[in-house]
Design brief:
Elements (H helix, E strand, L loop, with lengths): L1 E2 L9 E9 L5 E10 L2 E7 L9 E12 L1 E6 L19 H17 L2 E6 L6 H10 L7 E4 L4 E3 L17 E3 L4 H11 L3 E5 L16 H13 L3 E5 L3 H10 L3 E3 L6 H10 L2 E3 L3 H8 L1 H4 L3 H24 L2 E2 L16 H7 L4 H7 L2 H6 L17 E4 L8 H5 L1 E6 L2 E5 L5
Parallel strand pairs: 2-5, 6-7, 7-8, 9-10, 11-12, 12-13, 13-14, 14-15
Antiparallel strand pairs: 1-18, 2-3, 3-4, 5-16, 16-17, 17-18
Length: about 425
């Protein structure tokens, strides 16, 4: 199960697949995808589609599909399953970057070639993104936020505000716009705001920024040419985030049908992240969660799924986000199975992780499809994900990102 650090070949490469499929329902039999550098130059079928002089890679036992997009990760959140609570361990920025290599590798192995990483401490996400872009590290293409913006609240007994890597930068009402500017100046591609309580075993969802404050954050982000994602477990915060003009709202559950109808009209993306609470509940003992907390996670997951089901029916745009942390990397695409349970067809679920994720990131002309001019982000799978979404989840065998082979798990024949 190797992740390979390779550069894109200097000459055109013709990749031959048994077939090529996309979320649109497009199917090309005996597909030939010609790659030059980091881009796709042509897509055809049969011997005639192979250019003279091109290097041929025979992948005809497999189906080609686009590299997938996970729009909600936390790549720098690393913990050892053997010592999950990390008692007494304090890590500096450099050590966190090195530990994140495992998370990057496992994400690529799922067929995810692009991520939106929604929060890190000490700007580790920016360091990871830049290291990958320079070829120093091997990982998915990253779009990052720096610190998420969270409400400043006094600590116990009137002490200083509590700070946590999970909740990010602390801001007051008066410096929301300044906090946005700080993240952009540090190199953030996106802005993240924590619009409600709720994270890990906490599923409360109390709105923490007013509707007006969310509007200030959205306006400040847009003025600087950045998109914004707002975290909200609760329906009031989610509705406020949508109305403020956030490009996506994360986690939100319990919204009324009338709100979902408005959501669909507005075109805001909904990122349910249903599977991450499954991860927390299944690993409750290792994470130190109580039975009561597990019951809360299970209850919220059911509400999350029911909300996603009604969102699908209402025509709300949905993008796949795993909210992967710790040893959940490598399970990034399990969210697709929940989306199918919520009423999506396999093709619609695949769209949430390809064309939908690309649109949310503003990259519809670069990723999410296998077409001339797009990045050569190509995944080889056993089977047809348009018939069975499990193919995209569990049967990834080979991955190319930007023209370089980064994963090869094929069985020798």
């Amino acid at each position: 199960m190797a992740v390979q650090a390779q550069t894109a070949p200097a000459h055109p490469v013709a990749l031959r697949f048994g077939s090529l499929v996309e979320a649109s329902g497009r199917v090309v039999r005996d597909a030939v995808i010609v790659v030059d550098g980091d881009r796709i130059v042509s897509v055809g079928a049969g011997d005639r589609a192979v250019p003279k002089g091109a290097t041929v890679r025979d992948l005809r036992p497999y189906t080609a599909m686009p590299g997938m997009v996970d729009v909600h990760t936390h790549m720098s959140f690393w913990r050892s399953r053997e010592n999950p609570l990390g008692t007494g361990v304090t890590r500096n920025k450099d050590s966190v970057v090195m530990l994140a290599v495992e998370n990057l590798r496992k994400t690529l192995e799922t067929g995810v070639t692009t991520v939106r990483d929604l929060g890190a401490s000490n700007y580790v996400d920016i360091a990871l993104r830049d290291s990958i872009n320079k070829g120093v590290m091997v990982g998915p293409r990253m779009y990052v936020v720096g610190y998420g913006l969270s409400r400043a609240t006094a600590g116990r007994n009137g002490g200083p505000p509590a700070r946590s890597p999970a909740t990010g930068r602390i801001v007051d009402t008066l410096d929301i716009a300044e906090a946005v500017r700080t993240q952009v100046a540090a190199g953030a591609d996106w802005i993240k705001m924590y619009g409600s309580t709720g994270t890990y075993a906490n599923v409360t969802g109390r709105q923490t920024f007013t509707d007006r404050e969310m509007q200030v954050a959205v306006d400040a982000a847009h003025a600087l040419g950045r998109r914004i994602a707002i975290h909200s477990y609760g329906d009031t915060g989610g509705r406020a985030a949508m109305r403020a003009g956030a490009e996506s709202v994360e986690h939100v559950s319990g919204m009324a049908d009338v709100t979902l109808a408005e959501w669909a009209r507005k075109g805001t993306y909904y990122v349910p992240t249903i599977d991450h609470n499954r991860f927390y509940a299944e690993n409750a003992v290792l994470l130190g969660y109580t039975p009561e907390q597990v019951a809360g996670l299970d209850s919220f997951r059911l509400l999350n799924l029911e909300t996603a089901r009604r969102a699908v029916k209402a025509g709300v745009k949905i993008a796949m986000g795993s909210d992967a942390v710790y040893w959940m990397f490598g399970e990034n695409t399990r969210e697709l199975a929940w989306l199918v349970k919520a009423g999506m067809t396999p093709a619609q679920a695949l769209a949430s992780a390809t064309t939908g994720g690309a649109e949310l990131l503003g990259l519809s002309d670069k990723i999410g499809r296998i077409a001339p001019g797009y990045y050569a982000d190509i995944v080889a799978v056993e089977g047809n994900p348009l018939n069975d979404i499990d193919v995209a989840i569990n049967k990834v065998r080979w991955v190319m990102k930007g023209g370089a082979v980064v994963v090869d798990k094929r069985t020798p024949r």
